UniProtKB/TrEMBL annotation, chain A:
Subcellular location: Cell membrane; Membrane
Residue ranges of every copy of the ABC transmembrane type-1 domain listed in the record: 58-262, 343-538
Protein name: Ferric iron ABC transporter
Keyword Amino-acid biosynthesis: no
Native species: Paenibacillus pini JCM 16418
PANTHER family from the UniProt entry: POLYGALACTURONAN_RHAMNOGALACTURONAN TRANSPORT SYSTEM PERMEASE PROTEIN YTEP (PTHR43496:SF1), PROTEIN LPLB (PTHR43496)
Keyword Transport in record: yes
Length: 556, 365
């Protein structure tokens, strides 16, 4: 048994090495080679920094990320505060709306903005001339990218704030009120400090996400280049792999800083709550509730409008001239998608990613968390498992090209098949499921494994009979997370898909590039509808599991 | 009457007890354990008889849990050996040691019923379904929980959960039983009841048992023998009466029960070594006025059946000394004394109850 466990731990770490660290290494080393493969030191970096057209992208990207992060974090905090700390009506609705953007590819935010603020946009033309005035925000460029990024990163900041606001101790509020502190003072001395780490974490997450995003700049960036689109142009347009690697490394730097900071914050955050903490009780506040109702509705509409517009645009004949209903755009046979097959391919990839990824994340988390041999190796495995948090999708994709496209690699066979896409997706999204699984496993009594061992029951029996059933909610959550993200992602797989194997999210890029915006909108709508449906099934399933297992649920 | 006079007398009755066992069932020899630079266990020797109930008692961090984990096979000792019934098990994995274990957290599988929890280890042992059923029901009957066999752990009280955990540990007829602070998560009342239950069960099925606890009362009431540990070492091994009445060190005296430390004075100058004397609060008697040692009451604590007085000793001329003394007085006697703060009380320290320590050790009372 002990030997088997040691072997499986080694296997776990080996898989992580092959899937994450070694590809990353090939990317790093590629940056120091010329296109013929000879070592040239920092020459690529010198070329890069000597080309103003390229370096300008750095300041562009920084500008975009800082502005979108500031706006999104502020809005998300207000929204989360309203949902968590006021008595507005329809909290479940507001909560659901805030998550919606997660189900859409970031391309879609760009496309929907085109419909609203583009040259033929609803607002730009003043409701197609029905209004006496019109507003042109000059969408294509930084403005469009920033708005798209805000929509894209808003849910992530919102989720962090909701969690941070929930984790509080009401006794502190009672104590300060009894000491005569006013509302503003309480907010400044209790609320803000208690969400401090959430705030830092939200800023880093949002910054990294907008810094590395590819979809939005691709859709509405116009001539405004950012790092992610640069990689795409270098690799796909100019076949300049080394320069692609250089940009990839630059793209990863802030992500790594954010990663390190987030780890640091995580460690500090632990001991805020004690078992005696009491949950927050919302007091009366008429004006507070009224203002938050208005604020939350404005945000909710701002999220809903683009989505609904895109859906609408995909269902009418020609925007903005023939507004009659049609399903013609969902027949993709005459556009870049070439029929519905990209959608089916995406479904296939997402289901495979979800199933294999869930198995990998949960089983690897189990070996790293619940076995007691090879401590050092397991810690290394843990590090490897959270490393992908710092890897932008484009970097994963690029690293996979370098590693798997090498004819000397015994795994070369999966290059150019659907499997490399599945593997890239799993690696790209691996960390969050891994952390979810680890958290869930940590909640289980440490002694389960020891008890079983003392009863001479093999660990795998306890794994199947106790660990898996106890962790079922986490497992389903992981599966849904992987599915939804594989459906919407573009960045990692845009480099990896075989020529004859298109994917829904990538086909949106192609169709949008080719000017078939309505078809792109239709494909995006399909993805959102699928994701929302999967999420709905998940909710239903979780409720059912809860009810069936009520008898053995302890109050955790 | 000075205390120093009794030193010699006490020393004579204080013979170190050498535990000479002819045939120990579970024998621990020279166990050392280091974690990096930290020494968790230092040269531990312990012999346990068959069917004996032994408590490992000590403050947190003294190494008692590490010792239990080494016996269970969850840690490997740095040196030393463990034999059970003549078989060396030092290097065997837990699965091959044939013990039952009960944890502080119970570690019952929440998604399995009480019955399924107990039956968990019986499957895959070439037993027929009927045999499994018979064994499980027998053991559940033994812990008096057969009627709750279809309940999930979350539906049982803490005490019931602990009894199921016990049933699960003994159903495999292990050679010995390890209990890791099994009662510390329970309410005071349930704890007292479960002490008796566990002890009764242990005697009935006759199983060698080692229990780790930091609760001296638990150790005193349950154990055949107590192993007092401190700082990775065994300080004393003995029956509850022995460790209570004849503690070998100030630490043991202080850790188990309440105690007064009194500096010993050697009247004979040739005895240069300084010794320390100790006396339990309940052994000190209130003397008639003018007899014994004069003291003044600093505080009175009502403890239900008795009062605990905190006193300050005075010298012959009625001046305060630094020496504080704690005395327990039964409620019955106390009612005759009219005790109040600052009232004067005369104490009698019965010589036969005095405990002396030869090695001078600085212990704060």
């Amino acid at each position: 048994m002990e030997l088997l466990q040691r072997l499986l731990v080694m296997l776990t770490v080996l898989s992580l090495l092959i899937a994450i660290l070694i590809p990353l290494w090939s990317l790093l080393s590629k940056a120091f080679l010329d296109n013929k493969g000879s070592y040239i030191g920092f020459a690529n970096f010198l070329t890069y920094f000597g080309t103003p057209a390229l370096t300008r992208s750095i300041s562009h990207t920084l500008f975009i990320s800082i502005v979108s992060t500031l706006i999104a974090v502020t809005l998300a905090f207000g929204y989360a505060y309203g949902v968590n700390r006021s008595q507005i009506r329809g909290k479940a609705f507001f909560n659901a709306i805030a998550m919606l953007p997660l189900f859409a590819p970031t391309m879609m935010h760009g496309i929907s903005l085109t419909y609203l603020f583009g040259n033929q946009g609803l607002i730009t033309t003043g409701f197609f001339g029905h209004l006496p005035f019109s507003v042109d925000i000059h969408l294509y460029g930084p403005v469009g990218i920033i708005i798209s990024e805000i929509i894209y990163i808003f849910p992530q900041a919102y989720l962090i704030f909701i969690t941070a606001l929930t984790v509080t101790d009401f006794r502190l509020y009672e104590a300060s009120e009894s000491l005569g502190a006013g509302k503003i003072r309480r907010f400044l001395t209790i609320t803000l400090p208690s969400i401090k780490y959430g705030l830092i974490s939200a800023i880093f997450v949002c910054f990294t996400a907008s810094f590395t995003d590819f979809g939005a700049p691709q859709a509405v960036g116009g001539q405004y280049n950012v790092l992610a689109t640069d990689i795409y142009k270098q690799v796909i347009g100019q076949q300049n792999m080394s320069m692609g690697a250089v940009v990839g490394i630059i793209l990863t730097i802030p992500a790594f800083i954010a990663f390190a900071a987030d780890r640091f914050v995580e460690r500090k955050q632990r001991s805020i709550l004690s078992a005696k903490s009491t949950p927050y009780r919302i007091g009366q506040g008429k004006w507070r509730d009224r203002s938050f109702t208005v604020f939350c509705w404005v945000i909710a509409l701002a999220i809903l409008t683009p989505l609904v517009t895109t859906l609408y645009a995909s269902l009418i004949q020609v925007w903005p001239y023939k507004l009659n209903f049609t399903l013609a755009h969902f027949d993709f046979s005459h556009v870049a998608a070439g029929g519905l097959s990209p959608f089916w391919n995406s479904l296939e990839v997402s289901v495979l990613t979800s199933v294999i990824g869930t198995l990998a994340a949960f089983i690897f988390a189990y070996f790293i968390e619940k076995t007691r041999y090879l401590k050092g190796l397991r810690q290394f495995g843990y590090f490897l498992s959270i490393l992908p948090l710092a890897l932008p999708g484009m970097v994963v994709g690029l690293a996979f090209i370098f590693f798997f496209n090498n004819p000397n690699n015994p795994l070369n066979g999966i290059y150019g098949t659907l499997w490399i896409i599945v593997l890239a997706n799993i690696v790209h999204f691996y960390s969050v499921p891994f952390i979810t699984a680890t958290t869930s496993l940590k909640k289980l009594d440490r002694e389960f494994e020891l008890v079983s061992e003392s009863m001479r029951v093999p660990f795998y029996k306890t794994f199947f009979r106790v660990t898996v059933p106890m962790s079922l909610p986490a497992i389903i959550e992981i599966a849904v997370y992987l599915f939804v993200n594989s459906m919407v992602t573009v960045s990692a797989i845009v480099f990896l898909r075989p020529a004859d194997f298109n994917l829904a999210s990538v086909s949106i890029v192609n169709m949008d590039d080719a000017g078939d915006t309505a078809a792109a909108a239709a494909m995006a709508s399909l993805i959102v509808v699928t994701n929302v449906a999967v999420r709905g099934i998940y909710q239903w399933f979780v409720r059912k599991v809860r009810r069936r297992t009520e008898a053995w649920q302890t109050h955790q | 009457m000075t205390i120093g006079l009794y030193t010699e007398f006490i020393n004579t009755i204080h013979e170190p007890r050498e535990a000479i066992m002819s045939q120990a069932y579970l024998s621990i020899k020279g166990i050392n354990k280091t974690f990096g630079r930290f020494q968790a266990l230092r040269n531990i020797d312990l012999d346990i008889d068959k069917n004996e109930f032994v408590c490992l008692l000590g403050p947190s961090g003294c190494g008692k849990t590490t010792l239990l984990r080494i016996i269970a096979g969850l840690e490997t000792p740095t040196s030393g050996s463990i034999t059970v019934g003549g078989r060396d098990i030092t290097l065997l994995p837990p699965a091959k040691r044939n013990f039952g274990m009960v944890f502080q957290s119970y570690a019952l599988f929440p998604n399995l019923t009480a019955y399924q929890n107990v039956a968990y280890g019986l499957h895959g042992r070439k037993l027929s379904r009927k045999e499994v059923d018979k064994k499980v029901c027998e053991v559940l009957e033994l812990v008096d929980l057969l009627h709750l066999r279809n309940q999930y752990p979350a539906q049982l009280s803490g005490g019931q959960q602990q009894r199921i955990a016990l049933a699960r540990a003994i159903v495999l007829s292990p050679d010995f039983l390890l209990l890791d602070e099994p009662l510390s998560a329970l309410d005071a009342k349930v704890r007292v009841k479960l002490r008796q239950d566990i002890r009764e069960l242990q005697e009935r099925i006759g199983i060698t048992t080692i229990m780790v606890t930091h609760d001296q009362e638990e150790a005193l009431t349950m154990a055949d023998r107590i192993v007092v540990m401190q700082d990775a070492k065994v300080m004393q091994i003995g029956s509850p009466q022995e460790v209570y009445e004849q503690p070998k060190s100030p630490f043991v005296a202080d850790f188990i029960g309440a105690i007064n430390f009194i500096p010993g004075e050697n009247s004979a100058p040739e005895q240069a070594e300084c010794s320390q004397l100790a006396l339990r609060p309940e052994h000190i008697r209130i003397a008639p006025q003018g007899e014994g040692i004069r003291s003044i009451v600093r505080s009175i604590e009502f403890r239900g059946p008795f009062y605990r007085l905190s006193l300050l000793l005075q010298d012959e001329w009625g001046r305060h000394t630094e020496q504080r003394i704690t005395v327990d007085v039964s409620a019955h006697i106390s009612s005759h004394l009219n005790l109040d703060k600052d009232s004067v009380v005369w104490l009698e320290l019965p010589p036969e109850k005095l405990i002396s320590f030869r090695e001078p050790e600085v212990v704060k009372v």
